[in-house]
Amino acid sequence: VSPLETSQIIVITQTPESLSVSPGDRVTINCKASNGIDNAVAWYQQKSGQAPKLLIYGPSTHPSGIPDRFSGSGSGADYTFTISRVEAEDAGDYYCQQHYRVPLTVIQSGTKTSLQLFTLYRN
């Protein structure tokens, strides 16, 4: 049975709005729903000019081909996405999406985390 319901709009609050880190750092992004969403959550990465890429769902399952440095956890209304050792290629926007109730909380500028990486070059 699908958990999708139409009785109440769920508001997603994602924090922080932006992160500036260095390669090798640990990154944590938090997602809070206005009501419990029973693990019906997914995390996406989007790079400029590209379609969103699914990284984690359910809340801790990796799709095939997604590196183990990406992980997810949480329950009820509170979920967390972690990159254990960030790499340069991880720069981009990250989105939490709930698919517990219709309308789905879709990818939008107000509920994203922008991840920037700084690389220190040494001679």
TrEMBL record:
- InterPro entries in the record: Ig-like_dom, Ig-like_dom_sf, Ig-like_fold, Ig_sub, Ig_V-set, IgV_Light_Chain
Pfam families from the UniProt entry: V-set
Originating organism:
Gopherus agassizii (Agassiz's desert tortoise)
Name of the molecule in the record? Ig-like domain-containing protein
Per the database record, which ranges form the Ig-like domain?
Answer: 3-97
The record's annotation in PANTHER family points to:
IMMUNOGLOBULIN LIGHT CHAIN
